[in-house]
Design brief:
Layout lengths: L1 H18 L9 H4 L4 H15 L21 E6 L2 E9 L27 E5 L6 E2 L14 E7 L2 E2 L14 E7 L2 E2 L13 E3 L4 E4 L13 E3 L4 E4 L13 E3 L4 E4 L13 E3 L4 E2 L15 E3 L22 E3 L6 E2 L13 E3 L4 E2 L5 H5 L6 E3 L6 E3 L4 H7 L3 E2 L5 E4 L1 H5 L12 E2 L2
Pfam family, one: LRR_1
Organism: Microthlaspi erraticum
GO cellular component, one term: plasma membrane
Length: 421
C-alpha cells in the first residue's frame, strides 16, 4: 500500500505541474542568480544622476534584473551573476524613467563593464557638454550608443568615441552638438549605422571612409557641413543609404560614388553641388530613391541613360536650374512612383502619353518650367493623380480644346493651365 500512496502522490505532483496556476512565475536558476553588489550600486548611483536622488530602487524585487525590472534596463548572466547589458534613459515608454532637469553623468555609469547598449532620449535639456574621459571603459563591449532629441547636448562630439571599436550603431540625432566631426569616428570599423542628423556640425566631412567597409547607413543630414564630398565615400562598399541633405556641401559629386553598388537611397537635396551628374550614377542600378533637388546643377540631366536605372521609385530633381527637354529615358522607368521636375528651366513638349503609360506613377510635378504645347493626359490620369499632378507656371503649356469644352470633366482640369487657342 505504501508504494501505491507514493505513486498517487507522484501523479498528483505531475498533474499540478501540467495544469497548475500558470500565472505563477516559474523559478529558474537564472532568476535566482544574485546581482553583483558593486554592479547594483553603480547602476543605482548612475540612474540617480539622471532621474534624481529621490529614486532608490526600493520597489524592485529582488533586484533590477529580477521579477520587477526597471523599464529600460536589461541584464544578462556572467559567472552566475546578473550584469546590466542595456540601459535606456528618458521617456521612451510611458513607464520609463524620466530624466531630471538637473541630471548629470556620474562616473559610476562607466563601471557597467558589460554594457552593450546605451541610449538617451530627450534627457539633456539644459546646456551640457559630454566629457571625453572614461568612454574608453566601454571599448570592450558597447555595441550601440544613441543620443536622440537632446537639445541641451552642446559642444564637440567627444573624440574618444573613436575608441568604442565594438560599436555597430552610433546615432546622434536632433541634439545641439557643434564643431567638426572628429576623424576618430572612422576607427569604428564595425559600424553598420552612423547617424549625425539634425545637429549643428560644421566644417568638412572627414575623408577617411575607406575604413568603414561594413557601414550600411550614413546620415549626416540637417547640419552645416561644407566643402566638397570626400572621394573616400566611394569606399563604403556595403552602403545602402546615404543622406547628406540640407547642408552646405559644394563642388562636383565625386565620380567614386558610382562604386556604391548596393546603394538604394541617395539624398543630396538642398546643398550647393554644381556641375553635371557623372555617368557613373548609372552604375548604381540598385538605386530606388534619388533626390538631388535644390542644387545648382543645370546640366544634371544631360548624358545620363536613365533607362539603365530601372529600379528607381523616387526621382526628385526639382529646383536645380535644369535646362533642355524632359529626357525620354525617364519614360522607361516602370517602377517610378514620384517624379519631381518642377521649378527648373525645362523646355519642349511634355511626353504625356509615355508618362501616363508608366504603371506605378502616382505623383508628377512639372510646374514652374518653360514647357510648351498641349497636355495630352487622359481624364483617367488626372482622376488618378488628383492633387499630386501640377503643371502651372508654364506660360506656353495649354489644355486641348476637347478637355476644356467637356463640362463633365471640368473638375479634373489641372489648375493654372490655360486652354489652347
Amino acid at each position: 500500500m505504501l508504494w501505491q500512496t507514493f505513486y498517487s502522490l507522484l501523479l498528483l505532483s505531475l498533474l499540478f505541474r501540467c495544469t497548475g496556476d500558470e500565472s505563477l512565475p516559474e523559478v529558474t536558476d537564472s532568476e535566482n542568480s544574485p546581482m553583483d553588489k558593486r554592479e547594483r550600486e553603480a547602476l543605482y548611483t548612475a540612474i540617480q544622476g539622471f532621474v534624481g536622488d529621490s529614486w532608490n530602487g526600493s520597489d524592485l524585487y529582488p533586484d533590477p534584473c529580477g521579477w520587477s525590472p526597471i523599464q529600460g534596463v536589461s541584464c544578462d548572466i556572467y559567472n552566475d551573476l546578473w550584469y546590466v547589458t542595456d540601459l535606456s534613459l528618458g521617456l521612451i515608454h510611458t513607464n520609463s524613467l524620466a530624466c531630471s532637469s538637473s541630471l548629470e553623468i556620474r562616473p559610476e555609469l562607466f563601471e557597467l563593464k558589460h554594457l552593450r547598449s546605451l541610449s538617451f532620449f530627450n534627457c539633456f535639456i539644459s546646456p551640457t557638454v559630454v566629457a571625453k574621459e572614461e568612454w574608453i571603459n566601454f571599448a570592450s563591449n558597447l555595441e550601440s550608443l544613441e543620443f536622440r532629441s537632446n537639445p541641451g547636448l552642446i559642444g564637440k562630439l567627444p573624440e574618444t568615441f573613436g575608441n568604442l571599436t565594438k560599436l555597430k550603431s552610433l546615432v546622434v540625432l536632433e541634439n545641439g552638438f557643434s564643431g567638426e566631426l572628429p576623424a576618430s569616428i572612422c576607427n569604428l570599423k564595425s559600424l553598420k549605422r552612423m547617424a549625425f542628423a539634425a545637429n549643428s556640425f560644421k566644417g568638412m566631412i572627414p575623408n577617411c571612409f575607406n575604413k568603414l567597409k561594413e557601414l550600411l547607413i550614413l546620415d549626416l543630414s540637417r547640419n552645416s557641413f561644407s566643402g566638397s564630398l570626400p572621394s573616400s565615400v566611394g569606399d563604403l562598399v556595403s552602403l545602402l543609404k546615404l543622406d547628406l541633405s540640407n547642408n552646405l556641401l559644394q563642388g562636383n559629386i565625386p565620380q567614386e560614388i558610382g562604386s556604391l553598388k548596393n546603394l538604394t537611397l541617395l539624398d543630396l537635396r538642398n546643398n550647393r553641388f554644381s556641375g553635371g551628374l557623372s555617368n557613373n550614377i548609372e552604375k548604381i542600378q540598385s538605386l530606388t530613391e534619388l533626390m538631388l533637388s535644390g542644387n545648382p546643377m543645370s546640366e544634371a540631366m544631360k548624358g545620363i541613360k536613365w533607362e539603365k536605372m530601372e529600379n528607381l521609385v523616387i526621382l526628385d530633381v526639382s529646383n536645380m536650374g535644369l535646362r533642355g527637354e524632359i529626357p525620354t529615358g525617364l519614360t522607361n522607368l516602370k517602377r517610378l512612383r514620384f517624379l519631381g521636375l518642377n521649378d527648373n528651366n525645362l523646355t519642349g513638349s511634355v511626353p504625356s502619353e509615355k508618362l501616363e503609360a508608366l504603371p506605378c506613377l502616382g505623383s508628377l510635378y512639372i510646374n514652374g518650367n518653360n514647357l510648351t504645347g498641349e497636355l495630352r493626359f487622359s481624364n483617367k490620369f488626372y482622376e488618378k493623380m488628383g492633387g499630386r499632378f501640377k503643371a502651372s507656371k508654364n506660360p506656353n503649356l495649354c489644355l486641348p480644346f476637347e478637355m476644356v469644352m467637356s463640362e463633365s470633366h471640368k473638375h479634373l482640369r489641372p489648375l493654372g493651365v490655360k486652354p489652347c487657342t
